[in-house]
Amino acid sequence: MASSLLTRQLAISLQHNLRVAAPGSRYISKTATKTVSEFEYDAPCMKTTVPGPKSQELLRQLGEIQNTGAIHFFCNYEESRGNYLVDVDGNRMLDVYTQISSIPIGYNHPALLKVMTDPNNLSAFINRPALGILPPENFPDKLVESLLSVAPSGMTRVQTMACGSCSNENAFKSMFIWYRNKERGFTSPSEEDIGSCMINQSPGCPDLSILSFMGAFHGRTLGCLATTHSKAIHKLDIPSFDWPIAPFPKLQYPLEEFTRENAQEEARCLEEVEDLILQWRQKGKPVAGIVIEPIQAEGGDNHASPDFFIKLRNIARKHGSAFHVDEVQTGGGATGKFWAHEHWGLEDPADIVSFSKKMLTGGYFHRDELMPDKPYRIFNTWMGDPSKNLFLSEVLNVIRREKLLDQVTRSGEVLMQGLYALQRQYPHVLSRARGQGTFCAIDARTDATRDSIILKAKNKGVFLGSCGERSIRFRPALIFKEYHVHQLLNVLNDVLAEHK
Amino acid sequence: MASSLLTRQLAISLQHNLRVAAPGSRYISKTATKTVSEFEYDAPCMKTTVPGPKSQELLRQLGEIQNTGAIHFFCNYEESRGNYLVDVDGNRMLDVYTQISSIPIGYNHPALLKVMTDPNNLSAFINRPALGILPPENFPDKLVESLLSVAPSGMTRVQTMACGSCSNENAFKSMFIWYRNKERGFTSPSEEDIGSCMINQSPGCPDLSILSFMGAFHGRTLGCLATTHSKAIHKLDIPSFDWPIAPFPKLQYPLEEFTRENAQEEARCLEEVEDLILQWRQKGKPVAGIVIEPIQAEGGDNHASPDFFIKLRNIARKHGSAFHVDEVQTGGGATGKFWAHEHWGLEDPADIVSFSKKMLTGGYFHRDELMPDKPYRIFNTWMGDPSKNLFLSEVLNVIRREKLLDQVTRSGEVLMQGLYALQRQYPHVLSRARGQGTFCAIDARTDATRDSIILKAKNKGVFLGSCGERSIRFRPALIFKEYHVHQLLNVLNDVLAEHK
Asked: Which cofactor names does the annotation list (chains A, B) (predicted)?
């Protein structure tokens, strides 16, 4: 029966006493409100080293089909709950990576189970429509109820897509189309435009560019990859476009202690942006759009100030380039606001905002002017998946009902204070603690040290991710409470105590 | 209750007498076996012109959010059954387009409902994993049971992806990586490779190319789009790569009546392919791979002979280029074989075969040599969606159990005979009937005539798609039986009789 899993979940123990495993400077949590925890476990519980024997056997099996070099372990998703990921060997880990930041409200949330057991939803799963030609009856309503209810300031339009890369690819295309329509004075394309585009040549396929930043990650399909500059392994051997790449500010943390130095660094980068826009215009490859993450995530959790982004947005406007804010990793609440760019305090923050991951569906919001002028210009077979919109609606309900953005802010403060304490205690190992909400990171001395900390934490029941050259990134779900932060910090403390 | 829809479906009338609406040269169907029809309707039933008033109101609503220029009407997917698509105004149409060829076994097939109501499957829908790092326990088994059970000859490896474009983008990347590894003699990349790739420059981002064909469609993200040459509206204003584009044979139909002329045309195109490979090598942009559809679908249902593909495959091998067969539209059974390229009779047909659409998940099969040498080279957050693999397993079970490939062959023969009869009867309107299985097409005299036929057929209860400049494409589900063909042909006959 479909309801048995749900029943079983709801029956899980409500006890939440934090088990304190070892003496030392430990965080002891007060009992939290039970909203999240009603369906989850109370602590990690490790039975083998990871990957355990069952994972190893499955790795061998899958190795005959795929390259398995990136796989950590195999999961028992059915037994996973809330913030706890259970593997096939019965190890239960506090998940601070959440499928590369893409699980918004934890595993097997009852609200999502309800979506599955509602008979009105069945046909959305079984009959995947070609949304661009034959949308389902409830499609406009579902867009209003889900995505448009969280539309960034100034945006009333949204286009769904299947994944983050497709979202950015199509956002880029929208910017190119918009830019060329402006150049043509919104007249029809010429015969030469139409003929030359069929054979990949200018003017039909114009030499336009997208300006991106060193350290950026915008996806891995060929268009996106030309704006991605975080790790060589992503880009090596893949043909690319000659598009301008600006330096992203290398700030000193904590930001509030280095305001003057950081402002200088940001000014340097902005100057370079303007130079590059002019250079590429002279090269005959004008910048149709600027794409940027509010926090460079994959590239090492690099922050910049609201002032930087405000000035960058103005540079884009001044030079007639569209401004695309890529919120694929930052969007959906983890910074304590629904969109990270809301922290900038701008009324008019962007022309395009793309999303995926925690939003469960890919896509992008955009301003009216960025809407394609004709059908079939932004198009593909599926253009998203309405079954994902159903889940997103429920996720948004849970975020509102349980005030999860406030939760994120509170947990984020505890996490940051804990990270600051750790780096004071282990200054030869840790540095540059930084974050917004629970979207946090800290640097280890070397990449080897970083990898060792992550490995040891995993075997003590905390699953973490890495980013940049030597950063640990924290990407918990929005239901990550103060006592989960304490569990995380206690394990980090144990790992570092051994490391010392 | 989840089972109510299922119960309601199973209770639907078993009557299948074809309603003959008008006198003339009509096809009268014998009663068919009931396997398919147990859950579907018996005939189209139109209540309004299309789009009807409800669709028009929804178009207005959605128009405030998206460009709706490509939308035909809004659908009631819950009420749709088997080969019949029901719209929001209660119009029931025989669906010969199937969401751009992506509904394998019709709407609301009981086997797919069963997937949804199996509690063991719930967590696959609710907890979408990052497959590349944390796959579910049953992932290797499900791959073996679903995708690998239909792996093309010589291929034991498969990589899932979210959609057709992502599949081809990553297939291209695999070919580039493979090609560069060969060039480097399988040694490590140089410091220069690693440094230059981060800023989009050669040698790290090498000037490699993919050879494609005029009329091809391989997707719409920037890499794929550089190999797509079917319609200007897809490509206009989007920057592209200077990659070689060969002519695809323009054959005369029926193929068997023009073997000599067609062989000459194919030889001309193959000669051009070899010329282009040499030219692009001289340009410093060697051809890492050749990509081709077994039947150019979007581009107008252009066929070529097995001999052409065999020779092309040999040219690829001779020049050290990978050979990528794009089966996104042709794969999954519609040609009467599971993969269209099986019609070529080759033991060694391809290095990569990509799929999506009727396979419900995107992805590609490949030969061992095309496996990336390191993790994270072919990678993204989701790398597919295991819930789609669950549906695919059931689809494959139904295809086997109900011998649907034989059904496709039988229905395809009836369809082709019917199309030949129509073009004999209306030689001033129709020409070039062609097809394999039910993957068929016919040309109208002009694009306006084609569009008018499709519109009139829609209002008589048959939903068709277009392709190329003036072709009607037939893309029914695999459960399209002889009596469905008769319904289709009768409506076409009525439309053409009025047109005369």
From this structure: pyridoxal 5'-phosphate
- Contact of B122 with chain A, judged by CB distance below 8 Å, is answered with yes
pLDDT score of B30:
56
**Subunit contact A74:B136, Cβ cutoff 8 A:** yes
Distance from CA of B69 to the nearest CA of A (A): 5
Percent of chain B with pLDDT over 90: 90
User: What is the C-alpha to C-alpha distance for residues A344 and A324, in angstroms, rounded to an integer?
Assistant: 14
Range 55-74 of A in CB contact (< 8 A) with B: 58, 61-62, 64-74
Question: Is A78 in the B-facing interface, judged by CB distances under 8 Å?
Answer: yes
Task: Note whether B239 contacts A205, CB cutoff 8 Å.
Answer: yes
Q: How far apart are CA A388 and CA A131, in angstroms?
A: 13
> What's the CA gap between B147 and A62, in Å, rounded?
13
Which percentage of chain A shows pLDDT scores above 90? 90
Q: Which of B314, B360, B62 is nearest to A160 (CA)?
A: B62
- Any CB–CB contact under 8 A between A279 and chain B? no
Q: Which amino acid is at A17?
A: N
Instruction: Kindly state whether A111 is in contact with chain B, defined as any CB-CB distance less than 8 angstroms.
Output: no
To the query of whether residue A308 is one of the catalytic residues in this protein, the response is no
Task: Tell me which residue of A250, A298, A244, A314 sits closest to A439, measured CA to CA.
Answer: A298
Q: What is the pTM of this model?
A: 0.94
Domain boundaries, chain B: 128-401
Closest Cβ opposite residue A119 in set B4, B76, B239: B4
Structural contact between residues A378 and B69, judged by C-beta atoms closer than 8 angstroms: no
Q: How far apart are CA A287 and CA A175, in angstroms?
A: 10
Nearest C-alpha in B relative to A160: B66
- C-alpha B484, offset from chain centre: 21
Give the nearest partner residue to A129 out of B99, B157, B223, using CB atoms: B99
| Cα-based distances in Å from B452 to B52, B415, B470, B479 | 18, 21, 11, 27
Question: Which tokens go with B45?
Answer: 């039933």
Q: Are B115 and A122 in contact (CB under 8 A)?
A: no
Is B85 in contact with A134 (Cβ distance < 8 A)? Answer: yes
The percent of residues in chain B predicted with pLDDT above 70, rounded, is 93
Please, which pLDDT band fits residue B24 given cuts at 50, 70 and 90? very low
Q: Is B248 a catalytic residue?
A: no
What is residue B223's DSSP assignment?
H
User: Mean pLDDT in chain B?
Assistant: 93
Residues A381 and B100 sit within 8 Å (Cβ to Cβ): yes
Give catalytic status of residue B318 as yes or no. no
Q: What is the dihedral of CA B468, B471, B472, B473, to 10 degrees?
A: -50
Are A237 and B127 inside 8 Å of each other by CB?
Answer: no
B179 in helix, strand or coil? helix
- Helix, strand, coil % over all residues of chain B, rounded to 5: 40, 15, 45
- Burial class of residue B53, CB neighbours in 10 A (0-12, 13-18, 19+): exposed
Q: Do B113 and A135 touch (CB under 8 A)?
A: no
Verify whether residue A357 is a known catalytic residue.
Answer: yes
Is 3.40.640.10 the CATH classification of the domain at B128-401?
yes
Q: What is the mean pLDDT of each run of 10 residues along chain A (500 residues)?
A: 38 32 58 58 97 98 97 98 98 98 97 92 96 97 97 94 97 98 95 98 98 98 98 98 98 97 98 98 98 98 98 98 98 98 93 98 97 95 97 98 98 98 97 98 98 98 97 98 98 91
Is A165 in contact with B5 (Cβ distance < 8 A)?
A: no
Sheet with strand B157-161: strands edge to edge: B157-161, B362-366, B352-355, B322-326, B287-292, B209-213, B245-246
Read off the DSSP letter of residue A240.
Answer: -
User: Directed axis angle between helix B2-10 and helix B110-117, to 10°?
Assistant: 160
